[in-house]
Write a structure and sequence with these properties.
mainly alpha; 2% strand; single chain; two-stranded antiparallel ribbon
Length: 268
């Protein structure tokens, strides 16, 4: 914050929720959120680098703690996918694992105190504005949801063929009567449009709201003895509850990904 500027809840929250942007063109559309991109990239490299390192050194004997944890994680994701997707899981299983681990790591950045993250980025990265939670940026969640949506469209065409998928769009769910083709198409169009929106906004809304609540509670804890007592206790309780939200939202995002892939592979 600038020297001498009055600190208010609005300015404090606004400062910590401002992205570090880099313009890539004249249009506002070509604006890169550098903090979101770099944090997501680093978390992806760290998370999947560790998984690759553990799996590469896996043995057939008694596993060590790292190997046992990774095996439990892979088996958990595979079991969840198995209950939804009944075909060959050679692609869907790794996709679900990738989504779950990456989203979980990005969500978990919410546990780092915003002031600590701001001090690190200012002193080490020399960046004044740096938003450390990628999934509190709608661009991240929408990009992930849109990627899953495009994969769903691809497998709809690949599995059913362009003719089969077109037939499904116009002849389901109300039947193949030509009088119902328009209603079927409009119904399916709304469904297809709503999938990436709900997929992205659910994750974004929960993480963004959780981050704001964290900041409000810590601001209350800095108002005096009573504020420190109640604000600190509530912040601790919210942090414990937020662990569930962070894991649950990653799980829901993974499950919806598996559901959309299963829908693309199955015919009515």
């Amino acid at each position: 914050m600038a020297a001498g500027q009055e600190l208010t809840p609005t300015s404090y929250i606004g400062h910590h929720l401002t992205n570090r942007t880099v313009s890539l063109g004249d249009s506002p559309f070509w604006t890169l959120h550098l903090d979101t991109f770099m944090t997501s990239l680093v978390l992806g490299v760290i998370g999947f680098g560790l998984l690759w390192w553990v799996v590469r050194g896996a043995t057939a004997g008694v596993p060590n703690k790292r190997q046992a944890f990774v095996e439990m994680l892979i088996e958990f994701v595979d079991d969840q996918v198995k209950g939804i997707f009944h075909g060959n899981r050679a692609f869907v299983g790794p996709l679900a694992l990738t989504v779950f681990v990456w989203v979980l790591l990005m969500n978990a950045m919410d546990f780092i105190p915003v002031d600590l993250a701001a001090a690190f980025t200012s002193n080490v990265l020399q960046q004044h504005e740096w938003k450390p939670v990628p999934t509190s940026d709608i661009n991240t969640t929408f990009a992930l949801a849109l990627s899953v949506w495009l994969l769903m469209l691809f497998y709809n065409v690949k599995v059913k063929g362009i003719v089969g998928w077109t037939h499904e769009l116009f002849c389901t769910p109300f039947g193949g009567n030509p009088l119902l083709w328009v209603f079927n198409f409009l119904f399916n169009l709304v469904e297809y449009i709503s999938k990436p929106l709900s997929h992205s906004l659910r994750l974004y809304g929960n993480i963004y709201a959780g981050e704001i609540i964290f900041m409000l509670l810590w601001m209350w804890a800095a108002t005096g003895l009573v504020g420190s007592l109640f604000g600190g206790v509530l912040a601790l309780g919210w942090a414990i509850f937020h662990i569930l939200i962070v894991v649950l939202q990653a799980y829901i995002f993974m499950m919806l990904t598996a559901v959309y892939m299963a829908m693309a592979h199955e015919s009515h």
